[in-house]
Design a protein that fits this description.
binds zinc ion; elongated; 3 domains; four-stranded antiparallel β-sheet; Four Helix Bundle (Hemerythrin (Met), subunit A); single chain; alpha/beta; Rossmann fold; five-stranded parallel β-sheet
Length: 462
């Protein structure tokens, strides 16, 4: 198995001592529903953990939840509420959304506020070793001049540290521009914890390393997150943990997921409302959303368009129809031995072994679907073949979570008309195809043609 390591900027063979893999992914800051971009990251790493387990690794997957932070405090002030109440509400919403998205691989969610002791302990170590200093009335800062390797993950230097886009701590009295807060002394109305560091709360970066040191020790195997976290967040994590322990590397493999973009710039009205995963989940089944989120390679941007969502719906619809057809064949009596799915299994795993190339794994799945339909059309698919296919689909689903339990119910006569229309289109008889489309439309169904074939949807009666 190979994966692309952000730290070395190349694909590397994945190895871990024993079969244990300690894996950590940065979780959400719970001040709102999670953005669809976060959902992409979390669904992707759900697949990573599930695939590692499929390959025989014992993946221990921890994700933190940032439930104390400037953004939460800001939102609480705006809404005149208690910050921890806001955090509690959106933590609950986040966990529900993860469940709805089929994200089930996380072994443990670790909330920052439940690890304050570990945070304080790590900051004290950094102070003892001369890596942290106090700015009176403000907080404890990490002194970047004591960690010359800062920037090795993002290939930036400390001088560039002030051009980061997110959450840089400002104070005139910092020793170096990029120095970041480890512990923020409390201000009126903010949640705070009593400690030897003074009454205060954690800075943004420290919870991750405090949590992972507590559960994994000072070094572990795999750290993931969105690309936007490489700098400064993950640089800060490296500085904190390597400075605290003196051990390198803090993390062996770093994986980062690219953004969700909208290339057409103008987002359609319908999508405009859909920037949270929570909203999307109200309109699409989890299989469709997972297919969409996994449809581009994780290191390339994913285009968030109506068309891409329609494609995903059509793909899931094809898979659902396939599942139904295979179920019927699998239940027939005759039986011969078969290795119908061998090639598929090989293609599927070698795609995932190649830096989690999920688009290629999906292409292998659709090859299997095409070949199976052809074999079934020719009466060459035995019930044993069909049972093997069912087993293979079970494995695919355990990893990707994109196999619907059943096809959407469409009346037989409509299905027949759609098939006839496909045949007309293949014979380039477009006027008949259009006439039939109109007829289908009059019967209450709408057709969208996609690369995965026609998507049939019941028209909304309004
Ligand atoms: Zn983090």
């Amino acid at each position: 198995m190979e994966l692309y390591n952000t730290l070395t900027r190349k694909k590397e063979v994945f190895e871990s001592a024993g079969q244990r893999v300690r894996m950590f992914v940065c979780g959400p800051t719970v001040y709102d529903y999670i953005h669809i971009g976060n959902a992409r990251t979390f669904v992707f790493f759900d697949v990573v953990a599930k695939y590692l387990r499929f390959r025989g690794f014992d993946a221990q997957y921890i994700q933190n939840i940032t439930d104390i932070d400037d953004k939460i405090i800001l939102r609480a002030q705006k809404e005149n509420q208690d910050p921890l109440t806001i955090a509690g509400k959106f933590t609950e919403a986040f966990l529900k959304d993860m469940e709805s998205l089929g994200v089930t691989a996380v072994s443990q969610y670790a909330a920052a506020t439940e690890h304050i002791d570990q945070v304080i302990k790590q900051i004290k170590t950094l102070i003892d070793k001369g890596h942290a200093y106090l700015i009176e009335g403000d907080g404890w800062y990490f002194d970047l001049s004591t960690f010359p390797e800062y920037g090795k993950l993002s290939k930036r230097t400390t001088e560039m540290a002030d051009d980061a886009v997110s959450r840089i701590d400002e104070n005139q009295n910092k020793r170096n521009r990029g120095d970041f807060a480890l512990w923020k002394l409390s201000k009126p109305g903010e949640p705070s914890w009593d400690s030897e560091l003074g009454k205060g709360r954690p800075g943004w970066h420290i919870e991750d390393t405090a949590i992972t040191e507590h559960y994994f020790g000072p070094q572990y195997d795999l750290h993931g997150g969105g690309q936007d976290l490489i700098f400064p967040h993950h640089e800060a994590e490296i500085a904190q943990q390597e400075a605290a322990s003196g051990l390198k590397p803090f993390v062996r493999y770093w994986m980062h997921v690219a953004f969700i973009v909208n290339k057409q710039a103008k987002m359609s009205k319908s999508l405009g409302n859909f920037t949270s995963a929570h909203d999307l989940l109200e309109s699409y089944p989890k299989e469709v959303l997972r297919f969409f989120l996994l449809s581009a390679h994780y290191r390339t941007p994913l285009d968030f368009t109506d068309q891409n969502l329609i494609q995903s719906e059509a793909a899931i619809s094809r898979i659902g129809e396939f599942v139904e057809r295979i179920k019927i064949i699998a239940n027939q009596e005759e039986s011969t031995s078969s290795d119908f799915t061998e090639a598929f299994k090989k293609d599927f795993t070698s795609a995932l072994d190649d830096d989690f190339n999920i688009p290629n794994a999906l292409a292998a799945l659709f090859d299997l679907i095409r070949q199976s339909h052809t074999a079934a059309d020719e009466q060459k698919l035995s019930s044993t073949d069909a049972q093997e296919i069912q087993n293979a689909l079970g494995e695919v689903n355990a990893i990707l979570g994109i196999i619907p339990a059943q096809a959407t119910a469409i009346p037989e006569e409509i299905k027949k008309s759609v098939q006839e229309r496909e045949a007309m289109r293949q014979n380039k008889d477009f006027s008949s195809a259009d006439a039939l489309r109109q007829k289908i439309s009059d019967q209450g169904y709408q057709i969208e043609d996609t690369t995965y074939g026609p998507l049939l949807k019941k028209k909304k009666t309004s």
